[in-house]
Design goal:
Layout: E1 15-17, E2 26-35, H1 42-51, E3 64-73, E4 76-85, H2 95-99, E5 104-110, H3 114-130, E6 136-142, H4 155-165, E7 168-171, H5 180-190
Parallel strand pairs: 2-4, 2-5, 5-6, 6-7
Antiparallel strand pairs: 1-3, 3-4
């Protein structure tokens, strides 16, 4: 299991709020959904972000998993209501229930698997067509810790696609914690800072 020491801070002007930390006066709550093919590391990114942990063998998500975590930005605390969706094709029809009313999304692909990048592009198109118009979308090229010889999607390819479609973009590694906190912090910075709670329930 990787050390969780580096999960409590980041270099982008934000920090992760742990349960025992002093909360700040203004709290904004947002629904965030993770989308992507099975085994790209969505659940591992969430586990690293929320608990500072990494499990080499992570069980596949069934349907979706729900968890919360907060990020502190100057005078505001951002509370993310995170929906980690299953990547298997049989669960695809359930996805709209989870990204409906979402204010943010992270679409994840595996840099060693070109097919997952193609699937990520499909998710981008679906969100831009079906999700709320002001949704903040980030594209994450995960498993960046793997050897360069295994890479199938170049950094420049992901960056160019993200720039063309107005997405945040980072390559990440749930295993080493590379850019995991940072991608959530950058999303938090782009969200409107309106205090209050949002209904994050999933429609039947």
């Amino acid at each position: 299991m990787a050390s969780s020491n580096n999960s409590n801070s980041n270099g982008r002007g934000g920090r992760i709020q742990r349960p025992n930390d002093q909360t700040q006066a203004k709290i904004c709550q947002y629904k965030l959904v993770l989308l992507g093919e099975s085994a790209v590391g969505k659940s591992s990114l969430v586990l690293r972000f929320v608990r500072g942990q990494f499990h080499e063998y992570q069980e596949s998500t069934i349907g979706a998993a729900f968890i919360t975590q907060t990020v502190c930005l100057d005078d505001v605390t951002i509370r993310f209501e995170i929906w980690d969706t299953a990547g298997q094709e049989r669960y695809h029809t359930l996805a709209p229930m989870y990204y409906r009313n979402a204010q943010a999304a992270i679409i994840v692909y595996d840099i060693t698997n070109q097919d997952t990048f193609g699937r990520a592009k499909s998710w981008v198109k679906e969100l831009q067509r079906m999700a709320p118009p002001n949704i903040v979308i980030a594209l994450a090229g995960n498993k960046a810790d793997l050897p360069a010889s295994r890479r199938c999607v170049e950094y420049s390819e992901g960056e160019a696609y993200a720039e063309e479609h107005g997405l945040l973009f980072m390559e990440t590694s749930a295993k080493t914690a590379m850019n995991v906190n940072e991608i959530f912090v950058e999303i938090a910075k782009k969200l409107p800072k309106k205090e209050g709670s949002l209904d994050v329930s999933v429609d039947a």
